[in-house]
Amino acid sequence: MNSRLFSIIRKEFIQIFRDKRTLALILVIPIMQLFLLGYAATSDVRNVPLAVFDQSYSAEARALLDAYRASDYFEIAFAAASDAEIQTLIETGQARAALIIPPDYANRLRDGSAQVMFILDGSDPTVAATALSAAKLIGQSHATSILSERVARSGQALKLQPPVDVRTTVWYNPDLISSYFMIPGVIGMILYAITAILTASAVVRERERGTIEQLIVTPIRPWELVIGKILPYTLLALFDTLTVLFMGNWWFGVPIRGSLLLILLVSSIFLLSGLGVGLFASTIANTQQESMLTVWMTLLPSIFLSGFFFPLEAMPQFLQWVSYAMPLRYYLAIIRVLLLKGVGLESILPDFIALTVFGIAIMTAAAMRFRKRLD
Questions:
Q1: Which of 9, 47, 297, 342 has its CA 20 to 30 A from that of 323?
Q2: Phi, psi torsion values for 27, nearest 5 degrees
Q3: For residues 202 and 288, what is the distance between their CA atoms, to the nearest angstrom?
Q4: pTM for this structure?
Q5: Nearest CA among 302, 36, 91, 88 for reference residue 191
Q6: pLDDT along the chain (375 residues), means of 10
Q7: Distance of alpha carbon 294 from alpha carbon 203, whole angstroms
Q8: Fold category of 48-154 in CATH
């Protein structure tokens, strides 16, 4: 490393550590995003407030309620006295579901079969779909338990075996913990956001202060100026990656089954895309506010069309085609596979090649435009 390039890198690090807001953005914001998304952005449905209108007051009704109470999907929060009260609780959002047990529930159950009504608030489809499946599963399990008790009391040797026995096994994430899916996505979002936003604002800040002209008239070559400006943010972004990676493993238990060197290699290649976007934004913006807005115009579509929050397969075909132009899509697919499945390079090769092509193309185009602006 020559002395000119080293001087630019040293100058950039000094500016970063003097600017407390930039330092907070680099060191504090990633940890805040990790905990916010690790806890708040979850698809796990637990403790859905349940209102119960029990008109039977029988031992059989209490057994049914115990079955729902034993599950962590529902929390019996209200004991309603009428259908109107059930409607009020759901309309006001105090209860997300309701169970109505008819007066003749116990008698009908002894005669052979009984029916109960389960009402769900469908205003939130995600919660409603999971709660509906859980409600049916709990009811079926309780019905099977009652049937088994009846057979046992009758003394018959009848075996209650279904004609088809589907035995399920979940690999890589047996408990279906949503943070295992979200936290690898946080790594990709941090890498993209920090490198793009900070690179763009750092270059524009030089232009606003008038120091960019001073750098141009020095013997520094354009490529040295480009590398000197972006290398500190590259190193800090990789530091944030390791921080989020190990915090996610230590606090949330997210496994790191793949090679750490391969994870860093893929992350470094993905950084080219973020750095290129930030560098390009710096060439079309005259103020830091303009550069921020330019980066956010690319950041939001990348997040929503990369599979970070929503599955790509559920999107319209047109948006699925657009998502192929988002480097974050390929990085998220790679990092999730590396962390959870522990595969090697051969399993991620198509996404790895696409990520490399995008990174080199974006960075080359941005660097060429940046050099022209300097000239």
A1: 342
A2: -100, -35
A3: 8
A4: 0.77
A5: 302
A6: 74 77 77 76 76 90 89 88 91 89 88 85 78 87 80 60 59 80 84 83 73 66 75 85 87 88 92 88 80 84 85 84 92 92 89 93 83 55
A7: 14
A8: abc type-2 transporter like fold (3.40.1710)
